[in-house]
């Protein structure tokens, strides 16, 4: 018996870092996906094959002793085959670049939870999301769950620590040009750097949080009107706050400057320090923005919002 599921990746449109201090962030799912195929097999091995390597282990191992980025899959499979006389083969196929803030690990957890659980029973999206967040905690203990949520349900979402998630019902038609610095970033150490900035500049940081909160409220209104130009201005403004807290670098700045020339606005997405930037475009400036970035040898591609979320088949 085989089952298959796919999940989109995500970008943070607004509010990264400030979200850690209680401000709202806005995320959206993107039309780049991870597909997981799970199959019951004879024997009692859990075997995972992916383009970043393989992992094969017997069940009942301690998760803390497994040193592999594939361990969320092992965690999910091991949990499901308790008291069942079967092994599981898992195959992971991805078109989301890894480790650059585009939600590859959350998409793995969501598609993995759906494909593996479907071998044993029917599950709701809500249950799959809970399993996916548990699995993601095996690699990022303090995950807010925001990424897994947007990957499961698709579309655009607002998230804050106090109130959790709210789906934003608008369906904007913009294109995002994502440029990848190909510098892997450690979210944890960049978040620690921002904490240091905050401790040294309490007043300034508090002002920035207020400005970001105001900006997000404006963005929520703009999303209802679908004004891509207005949204672009907010993106550029948000980038200034990210520059101030020190999460940018020369390569990101260069990509943003190039992106801003032809698009409506460009900023870092995610933790910064490496990872990706995005530029907001529509059909009038999409190709030009891609050409500008490619002419400077930057690795870039365009995405749209994914409104489907988790898909099982
Ligand atoms: O680059 P990512 O996708 O890991 O984004 C991190 C987002 C932060 O706001 C910097 C941290 C967080 O936990 O929200």
From TrEMBL:
Belongs to the GHMP kinase family. Mevalonate kinase subfamily. The keyword Oxidoreductase does not apply. This is mevalonate kinase. The gene is mvk. Gene3D superfamilies: 3.30.230.10, GHMP kinase, C-terminal domain. It comes from the Archaea. The keyword Hydrolase does not apply. It comes from Candidatus Nitrosopumilus salarius BD31. Pfam families: GHMP_kinases_C, GHMP_kinases_N. One of its GO terms (cellular component) is cytosol.
